Amino acid sequence: MGTVISNERLADNVYHLRVSGEYGGEMGQFYMLRAWGAYPVLSRPLSIHQVADDGIEFLYHVVGEGTELFAQLTPGDSINLEGPFGSGFPAVTGRVALVGGGIGIAPLLYCAREIPGCDVYLGFSREPFRTEEFRPYAAKLTVDVGGLILDNVDFAEYDHIFVCGPHPMLKAAQLKGIAAATSGSPVNVYLSLENRMACGIGACLVCSVSCKDGQRKACADGPVFLAEEVIFHD
Amino acid sequence: MINIGDSSSRNTEADLSTRIAGVTFKNPIVMASGTFGFGKEYAKYYDVNELGGISGKGLTLQPKAGNQGTRVYETASGMLNSVGLENPGVAAFLDKECAYWETLDTVRIVNLGGNTFEDYVAGAELIQKDADTRGRKAVDMIELNISCPNVKEGGIAFGIRTCDARELVRAVRQATSLPLSVKLSPNAEDIADMALMCQEEGADAVSLINTISGMKIDVRRRRSVFNNLYAGLSGPAIKPIALRMVNQVAKRVDIPVIGMGGITSATDIVEFIMAGAAVVQVGTYNFMNMRAGQDLLRDLRQFMIEENIASLDEIRGIV
Ligand SMILES: Cc1cc2nc3c(=O)[nH]c(=O)nc-3n(C[C@H](O)[C@H](O)[C@H](O)COP(=O)(O)OP(=O)(O)OC[C@H]3O[C@@H](n4cnc5c(N)ncnc54)[C@H](O)[C@@H]3O)c2cc1C
Ligand SMILES: Cc1cc2nc3c(=O)[nH]c(=O)nc-3n(C[C@H](O)[C@H](O)[C@H](O)COP(=O)(O)O)c2cc1C
Ligand code: FES
């Protein structure tokens, strides 16, 4: 059980939740959160946005019943957190770009802090949020509203690119990575996938991801996968 | 194992144990197939040896990749799953997971699924052969899953009509001397008939219920959210149905009933026991509470003390 420190509305349907307690985790890992009893049945996975001295932070988009209940939390309320789960982004060196689309920027702030000198690309369809928090860590910060953020990223420039965002963006990043490699600029593209989850720890197989070497679990083997490993079916 | 308290005659520790086909369950809480992996994942969060038992992820003779597309959808008080029996196959399980199972001090149940009649029988034979040659015991019981709604080829095809299932249960019974429970489908034409058939064919127990076939439509895309059209409903939403079926079956058969469906509390467990279950299984609740087994056991003990129940036998099947 954690205690809510603050739960601030940042933009249309986007909230920044801070929870006190001793919660750790690596960049790209996630927690299963529950701010209710029996219903909704499943807990909700949220990426670690930041690990702070006094607790842990999440950034979430209100899309349905569960996140709506999160949005109603006020300071002092208790919330159940289990985690950290999954294997997140690798600790890399070299030329690194972080690319986030919308709420997909959530796991990237922690990455920016851990990877000094990375370039950060943040894309939003409407109102941007939390962009200034990246500035102290980023060598270069690019914010785009209304366009396709990937268009701003030259894949040939980097050794490693971390991507988190909507499904079409992940697929596009995979293709761009492959194209860069074929034209002689091998780049490791890492995607953070958002498969629906139930157990969060690798026991139920509802989060299965088709990979080149067979089925993998988004919750336990991911959520971060090397883009070239993932087979997108749609 | 009833310890009478020193200063009073109230029991301080009720007897939670039950025997099924010579296998002792130290308490009635067994984790349901498909929701608990092979136990290892949850062992990081609490001591799974405290549990009465574990039913492992459903196995088939050949490895299965499972279904494509969306595999889970939440419903009112429940969830639909369309995993489609993704599993490493019987042989890989025996090779890789059984070493861990050997170390466990809880009842270990292999849940065996299949696509064809021959697959089921060959799977049971492999498990039997392994049990015969293995030094330390790793499998205490086979749970024959004839009721998975999420695989097209087999599974549920056997689980609907009693006459289709009879030959299968008979053949698997002949293939193994391990204790055998047959897991029944709530989608069966007559679940009590099916259970009676299992008893006649030499099953040691029946497990019920598996998930109930259900559906969810994405109205904007004008299609089912599941590639397989239908999926299996589990969780609190199905508890009343499961309880009724356990009661119907327990009244018809003489073999023990392993009851499950929507259990999320100690009182839910007591309801199933009162309805006639020997032990229960807990599935979806693991997703609501990572320490489900530990918490349910604590609460069940507490309930027994409060109600002054010394043994589950006192209340089993009383309704
Ligand atoms: C590893 C991981 C990390 C995530 N990190 C974040 C984050 O940092 N911030 C954030 O806003 N969102 C994040 N998501 C997505 C977030 O979990 C969903 O938006 C949220 O669960 C929706 O819940 P709901 O009850 O509001 O929506 P509903 O539509 O009512 O949810 C119904 C069911 O669908 C699931 N679901 C719905 N949308 C998604 C989705 N996009 N991804 C996965 N499951 C979904 C829910 O968990 C629930 O089980 C993450 C998802 C995963 C898998
Ligand atoms: C994700 C998931 C996977 C399942 N996989 C299996 C399986 O492989 N074999 C099986 O016999 N039952 C399987 N089941 C059914 C459960 O074992 C149980 O019968 C059912 O979920 C009802 O119990 P519950 O309401 O407590 O979950 C599965 C259920 C779920 C939710
Ligand atoms: S959510 Fe259960 S295995 Fe990934």
TrEMBL record, chain A:
One of its GO terms (molecular function) is flavin adenine dinucleotide binding. The keyword Phosphoprotein does not apply. Residues 1-91 form the FAD-binding FR-type domain. Pfam families: DHODB_Fe-S_bind. The keyword Flavoprotein applies. Its cofactor is [2Fe-2S] cluster; FAD. SUPFAM superfamilies: Ferredoxin reductase-like, C-terminal NADP-linked domain, Riboflavin synthase domain-like. Binds 1 [2Fe-2S] cluster per subunit. [2Fe-2S] cluster binds at residues 199, 204, 207, 219. FAD binds at residues 44-47, 66-67. InterPro entries: Cyt_c3_hydrogenase_gsu (IPR012165), Dihydroorotate_DH_ele_sf (IPR037117), Dihydroorotate_DH_Fe-S-bd (IPR019480), FAD-bd_FR_type (IPR017927), FNR_nucleotide-bd (IPR039261), PyrK_electron_transfer (IPR050353), Riboflavin_synthase-like_b-brl (IPR017938). Coiled coil: none annotated. Keywords: 2Fe-2S, Electron transport, FAD, Flavoprotein, Iron, Iron-sulfur, Metal-binding, Transport. GO terms for biological process: pyrimidine nucleotide biosynthetic process. Belongs to the PyrK family. This is Diguanylate cyclase.
